[in-house]
Design goal:
The protein has about 190 residues and is mainly α. The chain contains 9 helices and no strands.
Length: about 190
Amino acid sequence: MLTLLELPLVLPPAVAGIGLLAAFGRLGLLGGTLQVFGLEVGLGTQAAVVLAIAFVAGPFYVRPAVAAFEAVDPTLLGAARTLGAGPGRTFFRVALPLAAGGLSAGAALSFARGLGEFGATIMFAGSLQGVTQTLSLAIYQEFDLNFDSALAISALLVLVSAALLLSVKLVAGWRSTYTSLIPFARSPSISS
């Protein structure tokens, strides 16, 4: 199942867009079913943009999330259960806070990947200004019309991407510093 979720990492973006169109387009495998429920996902809809970006950027969240939860010490979960916490409380009060760093990093990476999505979006949703046009699609459109505009939009995306990367690194650094200040805290680099 995880391999299926990671498939968009290795698919060419245009192939991902064609696949989404074949699955969710008006004439796609699920397109007619969705229309029965009043949902239209396909060329020219904002839902198509969201679906294309989520499809392509999703693995950048799923992979770190799986790793973050795998890194949670099972003895801590067992201790919480022994002390009377139910499964839900153990998840929300123990596992989720311990995995929060990896979940945050995955969210930032997937958001950054989604900002730059081009291929699947243009193939599946199109590029209608004010409706389905993302910043990456706007850069492509402006490249031929007004290079200075394309350059300005590109600079904006570089700044946002750099800020995201820096914030992830700062949060990770703060988290490791904070954990090392807690007496008897288990170091992630020491295996038991």
